[in-house]
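User: I'm putting together notes for a lab meeting next week and I want to include a structural view of one of the chains we've been expressing. I don't have a solved structure, so I'd like a prediction I can at least talk through. The sequence is below, exactly as it appears in our construct file.
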Amino acid sequence: MALIALLALVVWFQYNKLVKLKNRASNAWADVEVLLKQRHDLIPNLVATVKGYMKHERELLERVTELRSAASSSINPQNEAELTRLLGAINVAVENYPELKANEEFLRLQKQLQEIEYTLREMRRYYNATVRDYNNAVEMFPGNLIAKTFGFKKLEFFELPEESEAEVPQVERLLKD
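Assistant: Thanks for the context. Below is the predicted structure for the 177-residue chain, given as structure tokens.
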């Protein structure tokens, strides 16, 4: 009888642990989605402000607008990586427009975007850490037995391609793509 009670206690403990870790990962993902939405909402204002000054970078601005639309409809790490790269290219291109660098609206939007990007990087790290903890619990004994029994599945990490984080955007190359 004691063995059955101990087994039931282990099952109960492991099940609750899996639920808690899964909920933590879901909450972290919701936070990432909120930041991505804030970024997507900010982009049209940034593009509109920059458009009047940056006549030669029209293709770049159009690509940013297209990617923003695609990213808003469904979160895709590839689209997000490209969007991050293109937003960096806008910042590089701004160096050629001193009057734009002095525009208060642009500076405000740029500061907001930088804050969102920083927070997004941190939230992505937090989300991936919660996914790692959850996946470990799903795969390690005895959690793997409970996970399999109750249908808990591994979660995917939110990863951006490495080149998007390491590469310095080159405006001329982006315009040719």
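A couple of points you could mention at the meeting. Residues 41 and 129 are 27 Å apart (CA to CA). Residues 11-176 form a domain with the de novo design (two linked rop proteins) fold (CATH 1.20.1440.20).

User: Perfect, that's what I needed.
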